[in-house]
Amino acid sequence: CGFAGETGPRCVIPSEVKKPGVSKPIRVVQYNINTEELYSYLKEFIHMLYFRHLLVNPRDRRVVIVESVLCPSHFRETLTKVLFKYFEVPSVLFAPSHLMALLTLGINSAMVLDCGYTESLVELEYQLLEQSTVDTGATKGQSLTSVMGSIPEDIVEDIKVRTCFVSDLQRGLKIQAAKFDMDDSSERPTPPPDVDYPLDGEKILHINGSIRDSVVEVLFVQDNEEKSVATLILDSLMELAENLIIIGGTAMLPGFLHRLMAEIRDLVEKPKYKEILASKTFRVHVPPAKPNCVAWLGGAIFGALQDILGSRSISKEYYNQTGRIPDWCCLNNPPLEMMFDVGKTPPPLMKRAFSTEK
């Protein structure tokens, strides 16, 4: 979280809260719990953000939430209720993460791969209109945690960041062949060196070298990648292929981008795609931030545009009247003049956290 107009977040913390008498922290982002529990967790977590990290009055600040387009409505509605009813924020804007990534580059067409912890999304934006969204649930950072066993999740996450890496295409294919070959006829490449990982200052966890590279191969197992991308019209497909944006924390694994491009170039030579794609040119943009902060930076840029932000945000007055928020999948939304702060004098919001004004 952070402030609009700044180049980086003020803090990056786990989305979890600690409860008395509970040994393990409780994850805030959960979709399979009831509304009362979720409301309680979100209230405590956002209170910590405002009064421990940001140190601002929530009533004086508009809120921009960078979200996934596949975020469940149940979670969005509960989060909005916490912000409006408990913290009494002036307005809330839900900004799709892939659109915010485009905003950092000043372009209106791109294929955005958001490879995060719980899911990977391939979102296609052509002239700022969403063409398709592919949810590749198996291609996610959380899959690495499940493969690596029953070690505590925070330790596994640190091991993944510090020791794991992505092999090149040829080596990766050999690793996959050896891993899934039931006849043991495929020979595994020579593994990288083993690593010793200290635990609690007393114990040492020995990490086998074969785990360091093979565990990441779960990200490149093909399943449903061909469902939507190859069905687009040729003109848009060529432009999207030349405007690729890779974001998300899992994309920061060493060797990830190189392997991804090698996989794409290998697939495009196959008959299934060779006749569809008239161009074999693929270009990846270099955003002005680390992959895990690109969407946040786009939200910070959008939040600094106060006139536009006021005309696109959901006001507290609207929410108090209706008790709901518009959803992209809902067709019975109210008129814009009722939904947004159109024509209203905005309060003096979004000042910087520090100022030289007297």
From TrEMBL:
<comment type="similarity">
    <text>Belongs to the actin family.</text>
</comment>
<comment type="function">
    <text>Part of the dynactin complex that activates the molecular motor dynein for ultra-processive transport along microtubules.</text>
</comment>
<dbReference type="GO" id="GO:0005856">
    <property type="term" value="C:cytoskeleton"/>
</dbReference>
<dbReference type="InterPro" id="IPR004000">
    <property type="entry name" value="Actin"/>
</dbReference>
<dbReference type="Pfam" id="PF00022">
    <property type="entry name" value="Actin"/>
</dbReference>
<protein>
    <recommendedName>
        <fullName>Actin-related protein 10</fullName>
    </recommendedName>
</protein>
<keyword id="KW-0206">Cytoskeleton</keyword>
<keyword id="KW-0963">Cytoplasm</keyword>
<dbReference type="InterPro" id="IPR043129">
    <property type="entry name" value="ATPase_NBD"/>
</dbReference>
<comment type="subunit">
    <text>Subunit of dynactin, a multiprotein complex part of a tripartite complex with dynein and a adapter, such as BICDL1, BICD2 or HOOK3. The dynactin complex is built around ACTR1A/ACTB filament and consists of an actin-related filament composed of a shoulder domain, a pointed end and a barbed end. Its length is defined by its flexible shoulder domain. The soulder is composed of 2 DCTN1 subunits, 4 DCTN2 and 2 DCTN3. The 4 DCNT2 (via N-terminus) bind the ACTR1A filament and act as molecular rulers to determine the length. The pointed end is important for binding dynein-dynactin cargo adapters.</text>
</comment>
